[in-house]
Specification:
disordered C terminus; seven-stranded mixed sheet; alpha/beta; Glycerol-3-phosphate (1)-acyltransferase
C-alpha cells in the first residue's frame, strides 16, 4: 500500500488539532453556569511590579547611565537649563513635559537629576506600550513604564500612581496624551493635574525643544539635532482648585518655558506675567500654514540666554 495522500494527511491533522483544542484556550463553561469575566493581562492590567524590584532596577540604571546617556549625547546634544529650580524640592514629584517624539523619554531619563532619576516611573499609554507581552516587558524594564489610559485616569492607574508616590517614587507624565502630529503641541489633559492634587505633591513643568527633528511621529530612523530641556519652578494646586483649572496653569507654565528656551528669561517672564506667552498648540490656521509658522519659530536662537534686561 502506498503512502496516504496529502488530502488524507490534512484531514488527520485537522482531526488532531480539533481533539487537542489548538490554539490553547480555557476549558468550556458548563451549561447553566455564568462564564467568568475575561482576565486581561495586558494594557492597563499589566503588572509592572517586577520592574521595580532590585534586579530590574540595577539593570535599568546601568542602561540609563551608559547606553542611553551615550546615545542621547550623540543624537540629541542636550542643553539642560533650570535644574537649580529643583534645589528646594524634597520628596516625590510629578514631572510633566510636552511631547513631540519617542526621544523625549530617554532624553528626560538622562536629564532629570538625582535623587529622582533612578526612582522614577513613566506613565505610558496602555494601548500603545502595553499592547503585547514583549512590548510590555521591554517598556517596563527599560524606562520603568506603568500603563496609563489615554482617555481617562482609571481607578486602577490612579491607585497605582498614588501607591507609588506614597512609596517615594516620582512620576513622569506627558499630559498631551500622545506625540505631536505636526510639531506643535496638543492641549493638556487633566490626568497629571488630578494625580498631583490627589497625592498632594508638587508638579515640575519641563519644556523639551528639538526632539521633533530627531524622531518625529511617523519616522523610524532618527536624525541628529541639538535639543534643550528647560526645568520650571515646582507648582502646587491652589486650595479648592479642580484638575482642569490646574492643568490649564500647567500648560501655561510649559508654554512659558518654551518661550524662555526660544528667546530669553526676561522677555519670557514679562510675557508670562502679562498672559501673552506663545501657546504650545500653535495658531488655528491651515495645516501647511502651521508647518510654515513652526519653521519661523524654529529659526529663533535656542542658545541665547539673557538673565537681565539691557538698561
Amino acid at each position: 500500500m502506498g503512502p496516504p495522500s496529502l488530502t488524507l494527511r490534512a484531514a488527520r491533522l485537522r482531526s488532531l488539532v480539533g481533539r487537542l483544542g489548538f490554539p490553547w484556550r480555557s476549558a468550556p463553561v458548563p451549561a447553566g453556569v455564568e462564564p467568568p469575566p475575561p482576565t486581561r493581562l495586558l494594557q492597563a492590567d499589566y503588572d509592572t511590579a517586577w520592574a521595580r524590584r532590585y534586579p530590574a532596577r540595577v539593570v535599568r540604571a546601568s542602561l540609563v547611565e551608559t547606553v542611553m546617556r551615550f546615545v542621547m549625547s550623540v543624537v540629541a546634544s542636550p542643553a539642560r537649563e533650570g535644574t537649580d529650580r529643583l534645589n528646594t524640592v524634597e520628596g516625590p514629584v510629578v514631572f510633566i513635559a510636552n511631547h513631540h517624539s519617542h526621544a523625549d523619554t530617554p532624553l528626560l531619563l538622562t536629564s532629570i537629576p538625582d535623587p529622582w532619576r533612578h526612582r522614577l516611573v513613566v506613565g505610558a499609554a496602555a494601548d500603545y506600550f502595553f499592547a503585547t507581552r514583549l512590548g510590555s516587558a521591554v517598556a517596563a524594564l527599560l524606562i520603568n513604564a506603568i500603563p496609563i489610559e489615554r482617555t481617562k485616569v482609571g481607578r486602577r492607574s490612579a491607585n497605582l500612581v498614588a501607591d507609588l508616590i506614597d512609596d517615594g517614587w516620582s512620576v513622569l507624565i506627558f499630559p498631551e496624551g500622545g506625540r505631536s502630529p505636526d510639531g506643535w503641541g496638543q492641549p493638556f489633559r487633566g490626568g497629571a493635574a488630578y494625580l498631583a492634587i490627589r497625592c498632594g505633591v508638587p508638579v515640575v513643568p519641563i519644556h523639551i525643544a528639538g526632539t521633533d527633528r530627531i524622531l518625529r511621529k511617523g519616522r523610524i530612523l532618527p536624525s541628529r539635532s541639538s535639543t534643550t530641556v528647560t526645568f520650571g519652578d515646582p507648582l502646587t494646586a491652589n486650595a479648592g482648585e479642580h484638575a482642569r483649572g490646574f492643568a490649564t496653569r500647567l500648560e501655561a507654565a510649559v508654554a512659558s518655558l518654551g518661550d524662555e528656551a526660544a528667546t530669553d528669561w526676561w522677555r519670557a517672564r514679562r510675557r508670562a506675567h502679562a498672559g501673552t506667552s506663545p501657546g504650545l498648540t500653535g495658531p488655528e490656521i491651515g495645516a501647511w500654514r502651521r508647518v510654515w509658522a513652526l519653521g519661523d519659530r524654529g529659526r529663533k536662537s535656542q542658545r541665547r540666554k539673557v538673565l537681565w534686561p539691557d538698561l
